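Format notes (please read before filing issues)

Several people have asked whether sequences and C-alpha cells are stored in separate files. They are not. Every record keeps both together, in the order shown below: the sequence lines, then the C-alpha cell lines. Line labels are part of the format and must not be stripped during preprocessing.
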Amino acid sequence: MIYELRTYTLVPGKQGEYLKLNAEVGRPTRGDKYGKLEGSWTTEFGTLNQFVHLWAYPDLVERERLRAELMKNDAWTKDYMPKIRPLLVAQENKMLSAQLPLKPPLDGGHVYELRTYRTLVGKAGEWLSHFKAILPVREKYSKNVGLWQTEIAQLNEVVHLWAYRDLNHRAEVRANAVKDPDWQAFLGKGMPLLVEMRSVILLPAPASPMK
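Then the structure lines:
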C-alpha cells in the first residue's frame, strides 16, 4: 500500500467555496473509484487556507493507472477541475510508505495534528526504530492514527498523524507524556537525529471519512 498526501493552498477567503465544490461535485464524482480517500482536512493552525487530503493506492503503478482513468471522466475534467483551479494558489504532494497500519478513530468529533519531522540524511530509519519502540508508552496518553516515511518529495522525512478530542485534550496529553521518564529517554535518543519539526492542526472537511 502506498499513500499520497496532497496539500492545496487556497486563495484567501475561498476556502468555503472550495469545500462546497469538493463536497457537492468532487467527492460524488471521484468517490473511491480512483484511489481511496482516507481523510481530508482544513488547516486551523500552521499555514492557513490549506486543504490536506490523504489517498491510498495499492502501489504506484495502480495509482498511475487510476489517475489516467480519472482524467477520462468528463465530470471531473470539465465540471469540477475548471471550477476549482481559480481557487488554488499551490499544490504539493508526497508519496508515503506506511510504517504502521492506518488506525482511524472509530468515532467522530476530533481535531487532528499532522507532524512532519525531517531527519539527518540517512537517519529516518533509525529515528523510526526508536519511535516504534516507544510508541506503546506514548499511546498510553493518545493513539497514533498513522505513521509514514516519505518516498517521493522531501526525503529523510517522517510523517505522523494524531487525533484528539479537542485542543485542550492535546495539551493535556502532551503535558502528561513529557513527564514520562520513558518518553524522556526516547527524546534523548531521537532529538539529535532531527533537523526540522513541523506541526499543523487540522479540522475534518465536510466530505472527510475521518471525523
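For reference, the curators noted about this record: The mean pLDDT is 97. The chain has two domains: 2-95, 98-204.
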